[in-house]
Every structure is written in C-alpha cells, then in structure tokens.
Amino acid sequence: MAVMLRNTETGYGLVAILFHWTIAALFAGQVTLGLVMTGLADEEPEKFGLYQWHKSFGLLILLLALVRLTWRLINWAPDLPAGMPVWEQRAARLAHVFLYAAIVLVPVTGWAFVSSSPLGIPTFAFYLVVVPHLPVPVSEAAEAVLQRVHTSLALISAVVAVLHVGAALRHHFVRKDAVLRRMIVPARRRCGD
Amino acid sequence: MRRLSILSAFIIVLFTLPALADALLSQASGRYRIDAAKSRIGFSVAQVGGGGISGVFGEFTGRFEINGRDISRSKVEISIAPASVATGQPRVENFLRGKAVLDAVRNPEVIFRSSKVTRTGPQSAVIEGLLSARGRQKPALFNVELVKRAGRRIVFRVTGDIRRAPYDMQVGYPIYSNIVKFEMTLIGRRI
Ligand code: HEM
Ligand code: HEM
Fold first, then answer.
1. How is A64-131 classified by DSSP, letter by letter?
2. What is the pTM of this model?
3. Does any CB of chain A come closer than 8 Å to the CB of residue B167?
4. In chain A, which residue's Cα lies nearest the Cα of B91?
5. Residue A36: strand pairing partners
6. What's the CATH code of the domain at B96?
C-alpha cells in the first residue's frame, strides 16, 4: 500500500496533490495581496515592499506552474466519478484547463505589465535575484493596457477558483463522492499491482 | 651649471605653488550668493541590476563666505525646495515629493549648513555640516573643488553621498540604493 507519486486511474498521486495545494494557497494569498497593496495610497511606505513581494510570489507561482504543467502532461488525471452529468464533466474539465492557464498567464501578464512600465522598476525576486524585464513595448499606453489585462485576468481567475472550490465542496458534502478526498489523500498502489 | 639652474627653478616653483594658490584664494575672499539660474544640483540613486533614478532640484538659494586667510573659517548655507525635484518622469517626481520620501508639503525646505571646512589641496576642500530634511537633522559631508574664478564669479564642483535611512527615506531599499549621490555645479556671485 505504498503512496503513489504519479496519478492513477482513480486518484491523484502525491506530486499532483502537493502541487495543487501549494499553488492554491499561493494563488489565494497572491489575489489577497494584489487587492490589499493596490488599495494602499502611494504615500504608504509599505506599499513599495508589498509590490515586490507580490512580484516575487507571482513569479514563484509561474515557476511552480510550469513544472506542474510538465508533470500533468506526463500524467493523466483520474477519471471523474461515474454518473456525473456530462455538462458537469465538461464544466469541471473546462474549469481545470482555465485554472491551469490562469496560473501561467496571470503571472506572465503581471510580468509583462511591469516590464512595459516607463518607470522601469526592477523586480528583485525575494530580494535575491534580479529578474529581467520581458521584451515588450515600453510606454504609458502599453503599461495601461497590460495592467488592465493582468488585473482583469487575475480577478476572473479568482472568480473561477471560487466556483471551483464551491464545486469541490458540493462533491464532498452534497454528492458525498470521493472527489475532494482524492485531492487530499494520495492514491495508493494496491497489493499485487 | 645649466642643469642646476633648471633644477633650482623647479624647486622654487614647487615651493611657491602653495603660496600662489593661497594668493589666489585670498583674492577669492569674500561673500557670495549662489546663482541658482546657472548652478545645478543633480542627484542620482542607483538601482539593483544597473541604471537608477537621476534628476535635479530646480529651486534653491544659498550663500557662502570664503575666508582667504583662514579657509577653515569659510561658511556655506544652502536651502533647496524639495518640491522642485525633477526627473523627467512625473510619477517618480510625485512619489519623491510625497509623504513616503521628501514629504515636501510638511517639510518645504532641505537645508545644509556647514560647520567645518577643511582644505585638502590647492583647489579642494571638504565641507562638513548639518543637513536637515524631512524634519531630521544629520551630519553630512561634501567634497568641493574650485573649478574656476573669473571676475566676480566663482565656480565650484561639489559632490557628496547622503544616506537615505537616517532621514527615514529608505523606501524602495534595497532595490534602490540607500545612497543618494549629489553632484552639483555651484556658481557664486560676489555680493
Ligand atoms: C498568480 C499570480 C498573480 C496573481 C493571482 C495576481 C493577482 C493580482 C491582483 C488580484 C491584483 C490587484 C488587481 C486590482 O488592481 O484590483 C494584482 C495587481 C498587480 N500585479 Fe499581480 N498577480 C500575480 C502575479 C503577478 C506578477 C508575476 C507580477 C509582476 C512580476 C504582478 C504584478 C502586479 C502589479 C504591479 C500589480 C499592481 C497593479 C496596480 O498598481 O494597479 N502580478 N495582481
Ligand atoms: C480551497 C480551495 C480548493 C479546493 C477545495 C480545491 C479542490 C480541488 C479538487 C477536489 C480537485 C480535484 C478535481 C478532480 O478530482 O477532478 C481540484 C483540481 C484542480 N484544482 Fe483545485 N481546489 C482549490 C483551489 C484551487 C485553486 C486556487 C486553483 C488554481 C489556482 C486550483 C486549481 C486546480 C486545478 C488546475 C485542478 C485540476 C488538477 C488536475 O486534474 O491535474 N484549485 N481542486
């Protein structure tokens, strides 16, 4: 009954589970931080530092997301429970694809946005690494567009994540199926497998 | 014989040079007002990974007194309007004027007053004094070099490094250096 690292037909492996919860926690923190920091007046001395943490954690999410996606591409997801209506299955798949896209595109658009700023404020990730700017046009206009793209995409993703959480809770408490449990307890190799 | 005379001429020049410089300085003796229109107070703050923010303070007034007999008794006082900071980027300027940095509304003046002048060479000196900004007063040091003197005008190049932290202006550190490098050309007119 060894714990599986890889996914099986019925459950998620330990790697997928660790990726899921690490990124879920970072993502939730990141949305909160984004909303808090943009709510502060420019005068607040903490604001500058919070932006740096937002950029640092955002890029960490991007890095983890890329490794996670690679892992996902060489691992099938477990089958959805039998008897789930087709529209629900489609909605679940769509939501997962969207959330995978979000954890890559939200940080990439954030990175492009700061890169397009005429202010040229460096991104010094975790006060350890200077992250270069992306090769995007630098102008007030480009910055305004990319800012809107980043923040809208982030907020839409947050809404989808909330729906996703609602669906998971519904599976657990209403449907009483294994969907939430299998994202918590890693799949095990059965004797004889 | 000839070689000896060249040598002795050289020695004489060598020994009279400081006296010559002193003579120049005693001619420079007097009170001056800083000509803000022609002077320049530039600054720069380096950023991690290269580059940084640089700009000027456009509005300032100041005066100094050169004591030709005893240079150490010379004095300088300069007042800069922090609101006049210019970097070519309005968002940066507003940030620098704002509460997080210079807080120009509540502290409309940055003042330097010398307390000690030490000559370091025929044309150079170190000026120590107090720099007050954002409601705080801290010791500061500037290097001064005489560039030229013509008629009633005297031109100095002044450089100095000021740390931001003692003035509680360290916002952005360590992405932006703690050190503000000042580079000024101050033109005095005799009064
Ligand atoms: C998964 C990662 C990320 C999430 C979930 C996220 C989310 C957010 C949110 C919710 C906001 C506030 C939106 C609003 O104004 O209401 C925001 C703003 C911002 N984000 Fe991100 N972000 C992420 C990654 C990044 C990255 C990697 C960067 C840059 C390298 C970045 C740079 C910014 C900046 C500079 C703002 C401030 C916008 C402003 O001042 O209006 N973000 N982000
Ligand atoms: C409390 C918060 C969350 C809960 C309870 C939760 C729950 C779940 C559950 C139960 C699954 C498995 C679905 C299945 O078995 O088919 C899952 C998958 C997934 N979740 Fe979440 N989730 C949460 C937050 C998030 C967040 C914030 C994100 C994205 C930013 C996210 C992205 C994903 C993705 C991409 C999958 C698909 C995984 C795969 O099939 O490879 N989740 N989530």
1. HHHHHHHHHHTSPPPPPPTT--HHHHHHHHHHHHHHHHHHHHHHHHHHHHHHT-TT---EEETTTEEE
2. 0.91
3. no
4. A119
5. none
6. 2.40.128.110
CA A152 to ligand 1 centroid distance, Å: 10
Cβ-in-10-Å burial (0-12, 13-18, 19+) of A159 comes to exposed
The residues, ordered by sequence, that sit 6+ positions from A53 with a Cβ below 8 Å of its Cβ are: A33
The alpha-carbon radius of gyration of chain A (Å, integer) is 19
pLDDT score, position A42 = 86
- Is the Cα torsion angle A31, A174, A93, A73 positive or negative in sign? positive
Instruction: Report the domain count for chain B.
Output: 1
Look-up of token digits 């954890």: A103
pLDDT digits (tens, 9 = 90+) for B22-81: 666 778 899 999 999 999 999 999 999 999 999 999 999 999 999 988 889 999 999 999
Query: HSE-up of A95 (CA within 13 Å, CB side)?
Result: 17
| pLDDT of B16 higher than 90 | no
* Residue A29 near residue A57 (C-beta atoms within 8 A): yes
A100: left (phi over 0), alpha (psi -120 to 50) or beta: alpha
Predicted ipTM? 0.86
Polymer length of chain A: 193
CA B154 to chain centre: 14
Cβ-based neighbours of A32, under 8 Å, separated by 6 or more:
none
d(CA B71, CA A55): 53
Domain with B119 in it: 2-190
Tell me if A120 and B172 make a contact (CB, 8 A cut-off). Answer: no
